[in-house]
Structure formats: C-alpha cells, structure tokens
Design a protein that fits this description.
Layout (H helix, E strand, L loop, with lengths): L2 H11 L6 H41 L3 E5 L5 E2 L2 H8 L4 E16 L2 E10 L13 E4 L4 E2 L2 E7 H7 L10 E6 L13 E12 L8 E5 H8 L5 E2 L1 E6 L5 H12 L3 E5 H4 L1 H39 L1 H9 L4 H37 L20 H30 L2
Helix pairs in contact: 1-10, 2-8, 2-10, 2-11, 8-10, 8-11, 10-11
Length: 404
C-alpha cells in the first residue's frame, strides 16, 4: 500500500470521533450507492422488457416476412416459392392472406384480423405454448376450422367444444356498393372453431383460417398473398439470410426480420432506457457533488497535517493523490455496494419474482429483469468519471494552497 492510500484510509476509517465531515462522507457514500443500485436495477428491467417482447413476437411472428413495397397483396407464383424454399437457411415457408373482416357467432359480432395460412403454419409449433382450449387444427377431412384469439372468444362468447355453432366471417365484395342491408355485398365463409390461444393483447383480435378460405373471402387469385412468412433453420445468421432472400425476391418486394417489423417498439424502449439512465446519472452526479464539499472541508480541517507532510518532504502530487484517493474511497465504496445490491436484487427478482406487475391481465406475474454486463460496466465507468471530476478540484486546491 503506498503512502497516499494509507493516509486517505486513515482519514476515512480512523477518526476518533465522528465530525460533520465524517457524516457528510457517509451520506455521500450512501447517495452514490443508492443511485448506482437504482441504475443497475432500472436498466436490467428495461433489458427484461426488451427480451420479453422478443419472446412474445417469436410466439406469433415469423423469422422473416416478405411483403410488397406498395399495396397490400402480390402474386407469389410457384417459381418464386421454389426459389425461396431452396434458399440456404430456409426451413418453412408459409403463404399468408390477411385483412380485417367481420366475425359473427350466435348473436354476437365483432371486427377481427383474419389471417389465412398454409397448413405448414402449425408445423412451426409457435402456438403450442399459447393454446388455452381445444386443438390447433385448420382443416380435417374437408372441414375448415378456425383458431381464434382469446379476445375474440370473449367478445363473441365462443365455445371451442361447440361444433354445431359456426363462426361466420364476412368480407365486403370488390365492386359492390357497401350496405349492411344487402347480403350480396359480402363474401361469407362458415368455419368450426377448433381452438383458442392467448399471447398478448396485441394479438387478441386474430382469427387463423386456411389460406384458401381467406383467398376466397378476400377475392384473391389462387397465387395471391399479402405476405410470405419464412422460418429459418436454427443457428442461421439472420442478416445473411435476409440479404439472400432479398436477392431472390427482387426490388418490388421487401424482406423484413421480426425485429424490423417491431422496430418502433424497440426504438421506444431504447429511448426510454437512455432517458432513465441519464436521469439516474444526474442523481449519481448530485450525490457525488457531496464528495466535492466533503473534500473541500477536509482540506480546511487537515490543513495543519498537510503542512507537516510538506515539512517532511511530501510533494504536491502526493497531496493531490491523498485527496483523490479519499474521494475514490467514498465513491467506490458506495458504488461497489450499490452494484452488489443491484445485482442481488435483480437475481432475486429473476428467480423469485417478488415484485409483481400489479395487473390481472398481464401475461407474466412479475417484472422481467435481465442483467447485462455492459450496463454494469457502463455504470462503473460513470461512477469513476464522476468521482474523478468531483475529487480533482478539491485535491488540486489542496495542493496549491498548502504549497505556498
């Protein structure tokens, strides 16, 4: 241990009585610790929210989606489908016809998001963990089935075990004058509800049906779709697969990853995380300002001691290092304690979930958290920089005053 560190430790730990400066040092340490702990916890919660949204989207959306740059539908000839299936990394390709429609069941009706999909959609097994009631089935022995979201089930009071009451889906005919009194103004399909799923409120108005049913209802040609959904093989690089698929489909179509489809949400989470981090960083800065006042008063209190050090041959740099080390002890002790407590709180929340979401309709019971080593490193670096800035000026002042 060098001399400057030994003297700084004596100033902080070996005071015979607690003075105002001592209590101010403890207060500064606690302020830095609480701010550091809060920063670690809040950043981890935002990381958990980001990860939770990715899991939610992965339950319903495909790895890659091909859609038209203009309009809402396009022709997908067999040649294009074959080339896409043969693209390296592609596991499954699903044709999708999707639009809003009117759904009726018994005496109820509501507007739904009708999504027609190929039978291989169920091979993706995304909805297996989201099934609440019934079975995941789209067609069987010539009978067409519908899989409805829990929100649609609640709006229409649907029973998945009632095979006698059909789900009627209506869509306005192209070229017809719209009128609710004209039955010929709508295309109509009747389906049996096979199952009910729940993922998140964003998908609570979806109804899944066979793609041929959706094409007939929307008046699409046999090869027309609104999008093509592609599942990639495990371990495939998404950026490379996206570029390869874009080369296949050309410029008129757009290939988007799951993150691309939800980029606005991710951007919002990142902005909120940044703003909260800046706010908590200012709190740490305010707490660290106490270190400035603590060291400034300590310089006055220890003025005679520093004169003795100079008389014994101490240099200006040694005096400066003493007070820089004193500030580092105060701040880093608080920061280390705050980091440790923040990590322990996050690990406990991740394991036991003792802080709940507080809403009955939430898909999870407790706040999600995910520790990120980069956040911890950033928090530590922030404390070090703030400590150096708040400690430098009192230390420099001490060196200048006592060297006269």
């Amino acid at each position: 241990m060098n001399l400057s560190t030994w003297i700084a430790r004596r100033y902080f730990f070996s005071r015979k009585k607690r003075s105002f400066i001592s209590w101010l040092s403890i207060l500064s340490m606690l302020g830095v610790g609480v701010g550091t702990m809060a920063l670690v916890v809040v950043l981890s919660v935002f990381n958990g929210m980001d990860e939770l949204n990715r899991k939610i989207f992965k339950t319903f959306e495909a790895d890659m989606t091909v859609s038209p740059r203009q309009g809402k539908r396009f022709a997908a000839p067999p040649e294009l489908l074959t080339r896409l299936r043969q693209t390296k990394g592609v596991s499954l390709l699903t044709a999708v016809a999707q639009d809003n429609a009117l759904a009726r069941y018994a005496n109820g009706q509501t507007v739904v998001r009708l999504k027609g999909v190929d039978n291989n959609y169920l091979q993706r097994k995304q909805l297996d963990s989201a099934l609440l009631e019934g079975k995941l089935k789209l067609s069987d022995r010539g009978v067409n089935y519908a899989i409805v979201a829990d929100g649609v089930r609640n709006d229409l009071s649907i029973s998945a075990v009632d095979i006698l009451t059909p789900l009627e889906v209506l869509y306005p005919q192209s070229g017809q004058t719209f009128s609710v009194l004209n039955p010929d103004a709508f295309n109509q399909e009747k389906l049996t509800v096979s199952g009910v799923f729940f993922i998140e409120s964003k998908y609570d108005n979806f109804v899944l049906v066979p793609v041929n049913v959706a094409r007939t209802l929307f008046g699409y040609a046999p090869n027309e779709v609104t999008s093509l959904e592609i599942q990639l093989e495990p371990g495939v690089n998404e950026n490379a697969a996206k570029a390869a698929l874009q080369d296949v489909v050309g410029e008129e179509l757009l290939v988007q990853s799951r993150d691309d489809l939800n980029i606005d949400l991710y951007r919002t989470i990142r902005i909120e995380k940044l703003l909260v981090a800046i706010t908590l960083a200012f709190i740490i800065l305010v707490a660290s300002i106490n270190i400035f006042f603590t060291l400034s008063m300590l310089v006055i209190e220890k003025k005679e001691d520093i004169k003795i050090l100079y008389a014994m041959g101490a240099t200006t740099s040694l005096v400066r290092r003493i007070f820089l080390t004193e500030g580092a002890i105060i701040a880093l002790t608080g920061a280390f304690t705050g980091l440790l407590l923040g990590i322990l709180i996050c690990l406990a929340q991740e394991r036991y979930g003792f802080i709940g979401m507080g809403t009955v309709s939430s898909i999870i019971d407790a706040y999600p958290v995910r520790l990120d080593i980069s956040d911890i490193a950033l928090t530590g670096a922030l404390v070090i920089v703030v400590t150096f800035l708040t400690s430098w000026f009192p230390a420099q002042r001490a060196a200048n005053i006592t060297s006269r």
